[in-house]
């Protein structure tokens, strides 16, 4: 199974080119000029209540038909939608207003393109997901870029200190969810220090005590993991790091979170899936490879129309789950797709492999954030889709600005 998985991962682009009609297409990352996001002013807001319940499935959001009817956002709309809230680990909150320079407004509006009909449900027919059991794969690129968020979602590393995830993992459109005040991110570990040994009756570290008080769920998981490590030490002859399908995590505190104002209230007056993304800044940097951002191409510019992502689906507790699938519908801001997924994988980074300009090398980049299983309106009826938020030039500019603190490193993407 592992060898088959590697074949799928590394040769999907080649399979996508096997169709004679596609061999002439240029599956390359094309650099585009990015609009500028400029900070205008920042002011303090009241601290959030942090009382909302985490909801991994949204109803009555603006779907395919609704998207077609939305007006084209004006420059004033964009400035409002791309302004953002920042919540810090001490519970304080600010709102930053921005200006948008060099944005090209699409006169066609938020059009959608439909490719094929889809089956209903989150798992479509035969479950096509792969559980990554071998730690040699879990802890190597691209799988080691997947992270676990303590509110029950997934995310992806986009810099040495930043994680990209879905906004509704932290905020329900009205208030921040419980647990987001003491937010943590779990990075998969290769090996515990000291091979997991801990003296019986040894005192817990200050971090462990803090974790137990603030987030019992995370503390329980860490405790169970530690016990499991001790049991493995008592079994002579058993290899360390064996394929048990249960990754261990190094939990890191989140220093601050950024959410676009468009998530709180979109142009339709409700929460807008178009802005269902957030960036978490870690308190301490990691030293592993992360995945770069990319501008989302159209379906026609994707080999086989395929996308990929990995996350921590709730129905496969503790396992890293990888999947790939083709996109069925797209709008200017969203992908509607068939990817088999369950709650827990929400917030995963969706990536794609294309050729680098003037090179033969293929490179993975994040092109969307998995928003999850959503109910959307189609011809006046609610139907379910698995939806992803595309990284457009404007969203690229905003996320890049959050990473670097300025637009100097965000001129092209």
Write the layout of secondary structure elements.
Elements: H1 2-16, E1 36-45, H2 64-69, H3 75-82, E2 84-88, E3 93-101, E4 112-114, E5 130-132, H4 135-138, E6 146-149, E7 153-157, E8 162-165, E9 184-188, H5 206-214, H6 216-233, E10 249-260, H7 261-264, E11 278-282, E12 306-311, E13 320-331, E14 334-337, E15 349-355, E16 362-378, E17 381-390, H8 393-404
Antiparallel strand pairs: 1-3, 2-3, 2-10, 4-13, 5-13, 6-7, 6-9, 7-8, 8-11, 9-10, 10-11, 12-13, 13-14, 14-17, 15-16, 16-17
Helix pairs in contact: 5-6
Biased composition (Basic and acidic residues): 207-218
Pfam family, one: Trypsin
Protein name: Inactive serine protease 35
Number of helices: 8
How would you sum up the global shape? globular
Largest sheet: 8 strands, antiparallel
From the alpha-carbon coordinates, what is the Rg to the nearest angstrom?
21 Å
CATH superfamily: Trypsin-like serine proteases
Q: How do the helices and strands follow one another from N- to C-terminus?
A: HEHHEEEEHEEEEHHEHEEEEEEEH
Highlighted features:
eight-stranded antiparallel β-sheet; Thrombin, subunit H; 413 residues; six-stranded antiparallel barrel; alpha+beta; single chain; 29% strand; 17 strands
Report on the structure:
The protein has 413 residues and is of the alpha+beta class. The protein has a single domain (36-105, 128-190, 247-404), classed as Thrombin, subunit H (Beta Barrel). It has eight helices and 17 strands. The chain has helices at residues 2-16, 64-69, 75-82, 135-138, 206-214, 216-233, 261-264, 393-404, and strands spanning 36-45, 84-88, 93-101, 112-114, 130-132, 146-149, 153-157, 162-165, 184-188, 249-260, 278-282, 306-311, 320-331, 334-337, 349-355, 362-378, 381-390. Strands 4, 5, 12, 13, 14, 15, 16 and 17 form an eight-stranded antiparallel beta sheet that branches. Helix 5 (206-214) packs across helix 6 (216-233). 39% of the residues are buried. Residues 138-202 form the Peptidase S1 domain.
């Amino acid at each position: 199974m592992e060898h088959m998985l590697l074949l799928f991962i590394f040769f999907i682009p080649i399979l996508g080119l096997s169709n004679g009609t596609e061999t002439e297409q240029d599956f390359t990352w094309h650099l585009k000029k990015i609009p500028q996001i400029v900070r205008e002013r920042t002011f303090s807001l009241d601290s959030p209540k942090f009382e909302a319940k985490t909801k991994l499935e949204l109803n009555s959001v603006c779907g395919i038909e609704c998207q077609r009817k939305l007006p084209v956002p004006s420059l004033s709309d964009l400035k409002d939608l791309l302004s953002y809230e920042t919540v810090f680990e001490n519970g304080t909150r600010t709102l930053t207003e921005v200006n948008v320079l060099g944005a090209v407004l699409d006169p066609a509006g938020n059009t959608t393109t439909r490719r094929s009909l889809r089956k209903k449900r989150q798992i479509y027919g035969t479950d096509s997901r792969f559980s990554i059991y071998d730690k040699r794969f879990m802890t190597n690129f691209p799988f080691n870029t997947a992270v676990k968020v303590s509110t029950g979602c997934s995310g992806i590393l986009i810099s040495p200190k930043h994680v990209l995830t879905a906004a509704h993992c932290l905020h329900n459109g009205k208030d921040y969810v419980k647990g987001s005040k003491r937010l943590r991110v779990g990075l998969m570990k290769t090996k515990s220090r000291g091979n997991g040994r801990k003296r019986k009756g040894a005192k817990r570290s200050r971090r462990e005590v803090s974790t137990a008080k603030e987030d019992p769920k995370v503390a329980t998981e860490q405790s169970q993991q530690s016990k499991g490590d001790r049991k493995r030490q008592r079994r002579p002859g058993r290899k360390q790091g064996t394929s048990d399908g249960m990754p261990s995590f190094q939990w890191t505190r989140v220093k601050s979170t950024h959410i676009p104002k468009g998530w709180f209230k979109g142009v339709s007056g409700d929460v807008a899936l178009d802005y269902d993304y957030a960036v978490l800044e870690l308190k301490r940097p990691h030293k592993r490879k992360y995945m770069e951002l990319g501008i989302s191409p159209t379906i026609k510019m994707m080999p086989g129309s395929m996308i990929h992502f990995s996350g921590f689906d709730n129905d496969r507790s503790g396992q890293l789950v990888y999947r790939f699938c083709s996109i069925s519908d797209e709008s200017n801001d969203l992908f509607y797709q068939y990817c088999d997924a369950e709650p827990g994988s929400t917030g995963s980074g969706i990536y794609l492999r294309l050729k680098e300009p003037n090179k033969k090398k293929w490179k993975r980049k994040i092109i969307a954030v998995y928003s999850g299983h959503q109910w959307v309106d189609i011809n006046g009826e609610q139907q379910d889709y698995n939806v992803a938020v595309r990284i457009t030039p404007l969203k690229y500019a905003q996320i890049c600005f959050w990473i670097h603190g300025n637009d100097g490193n965000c001129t092209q993407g």
